[in-house]
Request: fold
Amino acid sequence: MDVKDRTVDGLDGMAVRGLLQGAVLKGHDPHEILRTVAINPDVYGNPRATIDGSALVRLVRQIQFTLDDVYLGFFAHNCRLALETERLLSFLHCSSFGEALRVSIRFTDAMSTDVGPWISEEHGPGLQHICKYMTIPGVDRDILVWIRFVWIYHLFSWMIGRPLALREVSVRGPRPVQLNGFDRFALFRCPVRYNAPVDALSYDRNDLAVRLVPRSITEYDEYYASEPDWFAALEQRQSWRERTQQVLVELQKAGLWSAPIEVVAARLRTRPRRLRHDLAAEGESFQDIRTRLRGELASAYLLASDLSVTAIGFELGFSEPGSFSRQFISWAGMAPSAYRSTYITDAAKVAAATALLNERRIP
Reply:
C-alpha cells in the first residue's frame, strides 16, 4: 500500500481528492480508481494520510485512462489520449528543448479551447511559459495547475536527460499547506511565487538550446510503466549552476560583488578548473552567472525601490555612477533610467522585482 503516516513526506489525501474531482463529477467511484492502482482508498480526503511520487504517477495515469482525458476531467470537453500521443510525436524528434517547447505549445493550442499556453519573452534572463486553464465549476483549479506543471517539468527533464533548470514557478493560487509540512512545489527546485498574475514556468534561456535525447513513444510508455517517483527531485543533487549561484548570492550579500572563482570553488569543495568544466557541461560559465546575478538585482532595485540610479550603483558596489550605467546597458540593452521608465507600469515585472529584491536584498 502507498498510504503513509503523516510524518512522512508525500501528497496528502485532500490533494488526492482534488485530483479525482473531475472523475467524480463524471460519475466514477474514486475509491475504485484508487484500488485499481493499489492505493488504499482510505487515503481519499484524509489530510493525515499520504501517497508517494510513484503512486501519484499511477493515479494520474489511471484517471486519464478511465476518462480518456489528458486533463483529468477538469474541462468541459475531454482531450483524448490519442491526441496526446500525436502531440508527443510532433516534438519527440525536435532538435532542441526550445524547439520542442514551441511545437508543443502550438499543438496544445489546437487540441483544446480550454487551454491557452503561450510564451512571454519579456521575463528578464528567463523565458516564461504561461498556461491558462478554463476549468469547469466544482473542481480545484490549483491542483490541476500543479499536476500539469509537474508533468511538464518531468517530461522535458526526461527529454533532455537532466532536470530542467527552472528559474521560477508562478501560480495564481495561494501556497498549499499540508498537515505533514510537505511542500509539493519543492520538487521544482526554484523560487515559487504564489498569488501571481499568471500561472507560469520560467525556463533558463540557456536550456532552450540544449539538444534532446533521442526518444520514442515506446520509451515514453516504458518510462511511465516504470512508475517514476515524481517527488524524487527533492532528493537530487543540485546542479553546479544552482550551487554556484547560491554561493555567489551569499558573497554578494556580504558585499563581495566580483568574487573570484577560486573563492567560490573553495566553498563548493572543488577546484576552479573543475568548476569551470562542470559549469560548461551545463551550458554555463562562471562569469556569466556572476554578471547575471548582479544585473538581476540592479533591475529589481530599479523597479521595486525608490533609490536613485546613482544610489543603486553604490548599493551594488560600483564606485562611479558612469561605470554602473555602462554595465547596466550591457546587461539590459538600455540605460537604467530608461529601463525604469519603460517597465515601472508593468505590474508583473514590478511584482517579480519586488519578490527578487525581498529575497536577495543586502542586509
